Amino acid sequence: FPRNEETGRPAFAAREAEGPFRSLADFVAMLQAPTNPLLVAGGANVGIEWHKFDLSKTWLDRANAEMNTNPYVMRERERYLTWTGKYAESAQLAEQTIKKLPKDRDVIVYYGYDLLHLGRYDDLLQLTSKYEKVLPKDADLPLLAGYVHKNAELLHEAVDDFTRAIERGPEVRTAFVNRGYVYNDLQNAEAAS
Description:
This protein is mainly α. The chain contains 11 helices and no strands. The chain has helices at about 25-30, 35-50, 55-60, 70-85, 85-100, 105-120, 120-135, 140-150, 155-170, 175-185, 190. Mean pLDDT is about 90; it is low at about 10-20.
């Protein structure tokens, strides 16, 4: 926000803004009843990133019917639903959102975790196979494929998946841990350590 040069305070607080907010009351009213879907998406995102899901819900509840068709609001609602354990509802929304944001990492990865939690392993493998080509640097997609292959006891495939996840995201500790478990299952103690 622009600042009042004399007071140093934000100009809207001094009722001097040249922009759309002439007062703090105008600003607060806009936050309570936003008309911009990106503001709703941004507020929901902050809640998700801080793991304050009640805050995310508050922002998402402010979206009107038109805003709910905005792909960024849809993406944040999908993420909120995943984090709150509503995997079926999140997966259903993800199928619509991917059509609007076909290269959005969050939409695709959260959809993958929904499918994993729902036990839709074939759908998950189709998703990871398709989108690893679209998002070749993403570590979560091979990690998800590794979970499926590990549970299906396709251990060599799981090692390959977890190794790809590690190469793409060396900070993804779960890939190291799971690859170690798989090596242990393969009775390869040296590689497991």
